């Protein structure tokens, strides 16, 4: 029963059909997912997978998804940004509206017009012009019962 997941460095491009893509196959069984964070991933695959208009069953995978966070490095191809709006619109029309979309990128991706349009289909849209991606490899470890203590 996964409610939050962070995926980092997943770099498999979309297949000819969304139903066969790795991103779709990863997300399909996650009916209880509420928060998805993508760091330096091939975002187009995930955006297509989350768009109910892009799969043969026309269903919204991760129907309870509320929060989508995209950490995007500056050198990535951002051709999927238009697809982000289409995905948010399609999900909202099927009752799976996102509460929050956060985009962190060192350069401007979305025009003011696209940001405004995206806000029609997600309750909160935040754009951060920064390069601060999370450092998953330095998250503190929980103390273990065998006597390990961090610090």
**Residue fraction in strands:** 15-25%
- Contiguous helical run count: 4
Average pLDDT confidence is: 80
Overall, the morphology is globular
Oligomer: single chain
- What is the SS-derived class? alpha/beta
Main sheet summary = 5 strands, parallel
Distance between the termini: 31 Å
Q: What series of H and E elements makes up the topology?
A: EHEHEHEHE
Architecture overview:
With 151 residues, the protein is α/β, with parallel strands linked by helices. The protein has one domain (4-131). The chain is 23% helix and 19% strand. It has a five-stranded parallel β-sheet. β2, α2 (43-50) and β3 form a beta-alpha-beta unit. α2 runs parallel beside α3.
Give the secondary structure arrangement, pairings included:
Blueprint: E1 4-8, H1 22-27, E2 35-39, H2 43-50, E3 67-71, H3 81-93, E4 98-104, H4 112-119, E5 122-128
Parallel strand pairs: 1-2, 2-3, 3-4, 4-5
Considering the chains and any ligands shown, give keywords for the structure.
151 residues; disordered C terminus; 4 helices; alpha/beta; 5 strands; 5-stranded parallel beta sheet; single chain
Briefly characterize the structure.
The chain is of the alpha/beta class and 151 residues long.
């Amino acid at each position: 029963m996964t409610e939050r997941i962070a995926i980092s460095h997943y770099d498999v491009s979309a297949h000819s059909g969304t139903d066969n893509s790795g991103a779709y196959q990863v997300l399909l069984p996650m009916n209880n997912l509420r928060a998805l964070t993508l760091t330096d991933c091939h975002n187009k695959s995930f955006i297509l997978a989350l768009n109910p208009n892009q799969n043969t069953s026309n269903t919204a995978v991760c129907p309870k998804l509320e929060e989508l966070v995209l950490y995007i490095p500056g050198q990535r191809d951002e051709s999927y940004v238009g697809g982000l709006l289409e995905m948010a619109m399609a999900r909202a029309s099927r009752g799976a509206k996102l509460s929050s979309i956060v985009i962190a990128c060192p350069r401007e991706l979305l025009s003011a017009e696209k940001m405004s349009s995206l806000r029609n289909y997600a309750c909160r849209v935040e754009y951060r012009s920064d390069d601060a991606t999370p450092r998953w490899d330095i998250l503190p470890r929980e103390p273990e019962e065998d006597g390990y203590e961090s610090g």
